What does this fold into?
Amino acid sequence: MQTVIIIIHLMIVSALIGVVLLQRSEGGGLGMGSGGGSGFMTGRGTANLLTRTTAFLAIGFFITSLFLSWLAGLERKPASILDTTTAPTSQPGTPVPPTSSGGQGGVLDTLRQQEQKQAPSGGPQVPRSQ
It folds into this structure.
């Protein structure tokens, strides 16, 4: 069903492009150019026919676009908020207690203290800037 509507939609788009290109513009046109009254239709009749054809094709384009968007919406299944299962959560890490050095302790000071606790006391130490 959707494939048939897409094919119809593409045919309407092609016809709409062709009809718009056939219309006479200020600089001329592709097809129904300068001819006197001896052509198939007069200038006024051609303009009315092409304007009406453009309007009908535009309406068809609009309707098929709406129908295709409606069909696309039917395939989506609504998700319920109530029927969701919760994923297992991991245990949060242990919080680091703040340092009591007069309120001057920041994240870097806390990390330095943790490194000092974990570093072996007998091995070589990396020099740190003061």
User: Anything to note?
Assistant: The mean pLDDT is 76. Residues 1-22+44-74 form one domain. The two ends are 75 Å apart (CA to CA).
